[in-house]
Amino acid sequence: MLFTSYEFLGFLLAVFVIYYLLPGKAQWPFLLLASYVFYFIADPRYLIFIALTSVTTFYGAKIISDKKESFAGWFADHKKEMEKEERKAAKAKEHKGEKKIFLAILLLNLGILAVTKYTNFTIANINSLISAFGNAEGLSFVNLVIPMGISFYTFQSMGYLIDVYNGKFPAQKNLFKFALFVSFFPQLVQGPISRYADLSQTLFEEHRANFKTISFGLERILWGFFKKLVIADRILVPVKAIIADPGSYNGFYAFAGAMFYALELYCDFTGGIDITIGVAETMGIKVTENFIRPYFSKNIKEYWNRWHITMGTWFTDYIFYPISASQFMMKVSKKSRALLGNNIGKRVPVYLSSFIVWFTTGIWHGASWNFIVWGLGNFVVIMISQELDPFYRWFHSKVNVAGTTGWKAFQIIRTVLIMSSLRMFDCYRDVPLTFKMFASIFADFRLSQLNLQAFIDMGITAQDYLVVFVGLIILFAVSMIQRSGSVREKIYGLAALPQFVIYYSLFMITIIFGAYGIGFEASQFIYNQF
Amino acid sequence: MEELIAILNDLHPEVDFATEKNLVVGGILDSFDIVSLISEINEEFDVTISAAELTPENFDSAESIYALIKEKLDDED
């Protein structure tokens, strides 16, 4: 059930009405039911996977949490009777017991994710190795179910398990509440990857209908639909045409394709997240923001702090930190300092951990080499910009441009261009072809390619390009206003008539210019496939 | 405390670490800095900081970082 389908809108309306008609105590159980119905409609087989992850994680975390609690009580009572060594040994024994359960649940769930998502990728790589040795017979691919949103809900559940294991909070005591945290339908298909500590604050509470909350939620949903239907799905047509025919669409077209894709992906993904956050908001539930105007970032590091934020922080907290703070990495650090000197040696653990994180980020996006190379491309760019830091310091001490509008604009454009170039791996889905097309931007550029008719031949009209352009200006204007606070709050402060005019116009624009009708079909959200 | 301030100054010479209280929340220390920092601390003080302790609360000021180191040192006595 796509967010942009009539079925989803009908489903949403029914959920919304029932949610507010029910007594407060029945609201969260009803949301669990609705989420499982939503998942059941997608494919009944999916339910087995999500239920398995929910049940195993719930009980694993609960056992760990109970063990922690009883140990803390026992330790407080017996602490004084013990010698220091005994205290240490008792703690170590307890930790070992918890670790066994933790690892079992973690490996089981990551195993399910790995088998469903990466089996065929592994087979394909084995086959290419076999054929490299001249053997034509390869392994045959297996037909596996990939449950919708598995990357998102597995990460969300594992984040919870790690937090409980680290003693950040006690485990949830109610299995069904936990099952709702894992399956909450608005964020099931494309995130954000919520943290239990955040989402649980409003998810299980009783909510009474509140005009402001509901209208803010609806406004956010409308904004998401505007981005997705008016801009993303329209510009998707030339993006597809350019990618499909790299032989003809090279040079400037390849560049235009990368820029169109930057716009499409932004509107598609942030639009989807707007719908998710808006749907939750209509029911009084607060879902973490996933984007803060990422295309206004000054460098790639900042970009990754503002784009798909919940994924970035997940990787930082649960992969980057554990690897870089591990005993192994401390040893690597000591050895590399001894071998390479303090200055270079101290960079080794940071870069090694970062390499692993970006490799994982790449493969999380998809089981194919283009995503892995994309991830590693990000790593390389971040490493280079890190190494160029002394140069930038020197440059700014000589040339006084920092803080000027021109310099800021240069930084922003540079970041957008680098990110768009890297995303070409995502477009062409083929590593050598991507390199070829990137080179072709420079090698095959011809003035004759600056030709409107050629762009119209890609499948949308000049008017459509105009709609996209106006949409882009609206996006830009809204982002600029957002810098000084919530746009909805600002509109809320206006008189009733201008408020009505703004939202009515946005609604009509979305209805009239929403890219459905002949030749258009509301397309799958890009991030649903991850 | 002086050794810690020296390590921090090495990372960001432009920051006054004696007074700054929002190192993580204010975006001064990013994840790369924190990882460099814990490996420096490991070198200098011979204490191991675990991933679970890498929280904004522990790293928001030189004082809180020092408190964490001290707690670790006391624990080992």
Characterise the protein shown here.
The complex is a heterodimer of chains A (530) and B (77). Chain A has two domains: 6-206, no CATH class; 213-308 and 363-369 and 377-529, no CATH class. Chain A has 22 helices and no strands. Chain A has helices spanning 6-21, 27-42, 46-78, 84-132, 150-165, 175-183, 196-203, 211-244, 252-282, 300-306, 309-324, 327-340, 342-345, 347-365, 369-387, 389-398, 405-428, 431-443, 452-456, 462-482, 487-492, 496-513. Chain A is globular and about 85 Å long. In chain B, 57% of the residues lie in helices and 0% in strands. The model of chain B has no long low-confidence stretch (mean pLDDT 88). Chain B is built from four helices and no strands. Chain B starts with a helix and ends with a helix. Chain B has a single domain (2-76), classed as ACP-like (Non-ribosomal Peptide Synthetase Peptidyl Carrier Protein, Chain A), CATH 1.10.1200.10. Chains A and B meet through helix 11, helix 12 and helix 14 of A and helix 2 of B.
| Integer count of domains of chain B | 1
Into which percentage range does the β-strand content of chain A fall?
under 5%
Number of strands of chain A: 0
Number of strands of chain B: 0
Roughly what percent helix of chain B?
Answer: 55-70%
The CATH class of chain B, by name, is Mainly Alpha
In the predicted model, the low-confidence regions of chain A spanning at least 5 consecutive residues are none
Mean pLDDT of chain A: 91
The Rg value of chain A, from CA coordinates, equals: 26 Å
Question: Which structural class best describes the helix and strand composition of chain B?
Answer: mainly alpha
CATH topology of chain B: Non-ribosomal Peptide Synthetase Peptidyl Carrier Protein, Chain A
Number of domains of chain A: 2
The largest chain-to-chain contact, stated as pair and per-chain residue counts, equals: A-B, 26 and 18 residues
* Poorly predicted parts of chain B: none
Oligomeric composition of the shown chains: heterodimer
List the helices and strands of chain A in order.
HHHHHHHHHHHHHHHHHHHHHH
Count, helices of chain B:
4
| CATH-level-4 superfamily name of chain B | ACP-like
Please write the string of helix (H) and strand (E) elements of chain B: HHHH
